[in-house]
């Protein structure tokens, strides 16, 4: 049983803790929150000792692995702090703000080669994601894709009321691309590889962050269009195009329904019923590696995830640069 510490007590942390409990591979033992009342409320529901000092959390907390779900701009420093404290690390996506921070995390990992850093890009661990990759390997030609993930944020009403939630500010490395865009960039990189060129056309907010946008990733023989947004909802399906055949997804991030339309007009369901908690697959995969880190298959999987994470981070940064989206973390 892995002893789990958490940084952050928002809804996504709650979902992660519930997935960890459902896996029966983790026990929540330590909770960090800047506010004692918030931490106590979370701990009363889920368990764990509460800490309001991050230094004390890492020094006195009884845990093996920490899940970091703080604002994006804090991820890199907290990941390095965790590694220096001898903790395994799971970081909610995006892992860091830019390639410079990624290099700093890699340096910290090199100094602690017995430890691991996982980016919690949950959907790449799900069976339906792998089913798409398998079908792609059987298609003779790929002619491009249109991948959509637009979901109205629960915080956007606050933004419209004149507030500046962290997820909609450049100060905390927020915006549509860094949040929902991570999913579709992961899709593209995992399924088609690193693009040769990128463009990003945004709808900016008053904070300077992107509320929604359209990205185009260029490959040798096709382009992939990404539609992302946090200030509106889209119900468009996502598609990957062959010649006469097409893969159709209900949603490029949720992947609850995936249908293959063959060239002869027949259809085949590629998807299976997803778990009730979408984080269950990733927490299982992370625990498998952490419980047997020297197993060759586990080592290979971990290195694949880490390499994919680095490429995705670089693509996100290149997209931001094309749109002149600059974070304080970049300077």
TrEMBL record:
InterPro entries: Gfo/Idh/MocA-like_OxRdtase_N, NAD(P)-bd_dom_sf
SUPFAM superfamilies: Glyceraldehyde-3-phosphate dehydrogenase-like, C-terminal domain, NAD(P)-binding Rossmann-fold domains
Any single Pfam family the record assigns to this protein: GFO_IDH_MocA
Gfo/Idh/MocA-like oxidoreductase N-terminal domain location: 3-112
Signal peptide: none
Top-rank taxon, per record: Bacteria
GO molecular function annotations of the record: nucleotide binding
Protein name per Swiss-Prot or TrEMBL: Oxidoreductase
